[in-house]
Amino acid sequence: MENGQKTLSELFASNTFTVPVYQRAYAWDEQQCEDFIRDLMEHPQGDQSKRHFLGTVLLAARLPGDFRNRFDVVDGQQRLTTTTIFAIAAIAKMVEDENLRSRAETFRRALLISSEGERLFHTVQEDEGFLERFVLGNEKPGNGDFSTPSKRRLWCAKAFFTERLSTMELKDVDRLLTVLYHSRVLVYSVDTPAEATQIFEFQNDRGKPLTELERLKSFLMHRIYLHSGPNAGTDLDIVQHAFGRIYLAAERFEAEPLAPAADSVLSYHCAAFMSWSDLGADKELWREPKELVRQRLNGGALVGNIPDWIKAIAYGLADSFEAVVDLLKERDSFERLGGLFAVGRTAVFWPLLLKAWRLREQDLDGFGHAVEEMERLAWRMDVANLRADTFESTLRREAESFSGNFANLRARLIEIGSWHRIPERYIANLDQENFYGEGRTCRYLLWRYENYLLSRTGNKEKGLSWREAANLERDPAIQLTLDHIQPQDSAPAILARLVVWNPADPEEKPQTFEKCFLNRLGNIVLDTRSTGAAKGKKDFNERVAHYRNSRLQQEHELVDVFAEKSGDGTYQWTEESIRRRHKHLKHFAQTYI
């Protein structure tokens, strides 16, 4: 194909296009689709000398087919994918009018399906079947069909354009598709992907900018092309295969709850598996993966071995991305790992967690103990009100230097847990008057306590999942919430009465029950959203039946252990009940978490 400017119809006239596996899947959201259609709508009508500029595409030739030339889309796939989806929606709208069906068929043959019946555009292999069935076809996907976020984006783009076009007159839909048909495309076509690495650039003010992962991919492919000599094609294939694994893994873990972004995983990998601290403590180049690789390549120590080093970087990164998929799935079977995510402070631990996971076969028990200490440190940092990025630099260096000695790693994490007066601040904040206000922190403690009760000898109930602790469940029958044992909406006389927390302290000044007791840890219990709402303002004694029938063991305890039983056989929830339960839960938090 000749390089230069072409219309979209000329681009598709005798060519078919495929997004190769080493490119990211469809990534445009509603905002980019809105920009796409707005650009078409704002294009001046009737002036063919001012054709709409669609953008730049970079193509690498493949072996030709029987009737058409074939190209891999190295750059511009997001725009070409969106062009295809818009054309599908617009043509579907136009065929509603019998007078426009012939014209719609012309657009269809020019932009979607050749006269030989061959599709003109193919997305990444992982999403190709979805595009065929649900975007180009008329099937409606079920929840199980959205196995990757990119599939959902493809469907949402079709739904977006279908909705927008449904409000337009048919002549306006025809006009927009005509503008697109005649739009200008700047084409760079090369004979091999290796040549494409020399001119890959992103010069566009529409769509999504390149991610750090894409920048690194482009840089590695270009450098391996420069240094591989006659083996450039083979070496480039190896790097492309590695990035195919990377993008597939990224699509899979992006669908998991509380998963890191792909660029974050790239940084975590660099912090854990690439040497960076010797380049300057103040630089922390794990934050800038491309620059870190550039400095390593330009350092002089890799001369003569650059292609092998680049291939090792690509495959090591692919291993880490796939490890993230496996690690996230492991949360459902390893409570301590799930607990770390339920705490909600995983970012500072990710590089260390990733490296420990990849080295876990050296000491499986040691790995489990290390994760336990990570969870404990994250939780205590949270209760102590330390910033989420506290110890980030320290833990990044621990990840960089870790080589599999899990006993030393565990000891180091315990040591870090004593810094910044964490033990003292931890205990003090467990005693705070408004522990209910800690939300997720309070729910995590009571989740861990519930599973502790369920783990005791003779109890056959299954423990609560980390997903319940992280409030990810949507079924109100099992969705966990925090409930006041003495209700927040109690009678004013109860909330306003003057009390003291510690009767043994003669200097403590009396405060209202609402201020001193209502939101203490001892007055908060886990409940399910559906049953919690049903209790309403009932007196504690009227709630006894609910607590006894609850699926939660800690609600059974309220009656059996902490409530006071009056002479007439009724149960009361008193200040002393709250004090005793608070002391009990505080002891649990200090001993078991």
Number of domains: 3
**Distance between termini?**
65 Å
Helix/strand/pairing class, anyone? alpha/beta
Morphology: globular
Helix content: 40-55%
What are the key terms here?
single chain, 593 residues, alpha/beta, 3 domains, six-stranded mixed sheet, two-stranded antiparallel sheet, 9% strand
Describe the protein in words.
It is a single chain. This protein is an alpha/beta fold. The chain folds into 3 domains: 4-199, no CATH class; 212-428, no CATH class; 457-592, no CATH class. Helices cover 54% and strands 9% of the residues. It is built from 27 helices and 12 strands. The protein has helices at 8-13, 30-41, 77-94, 101-111, 125-136, 149-166, 170-181, 193-199, 212-227, 232-254, 262-273, 289-297, 306-330, 335-343, 350-358, 364-383, 392-401, 406-416, 422-430, 440-454, 466-469, 492-496, 513-516, 529-535, 540-549, 553-562, 575-592, and strands at residues 4-7, 15-18, 53-61, 69-75, 121-122, 184-190, 480-484, 498-499, 511-512, 524-528, 564-565, 571-572. The strands form 4 sheets. The chain has a 6-stranded mixed β-sheet with strand order 1-6-3-4-2-5. A hairpin with a 7-residue loop joins strand 3 and strand 4 (69-75). The longest helix has 25 residues, at 306-330. The chain is globular. Mean pLDDT is 90; it is low at 201-206.
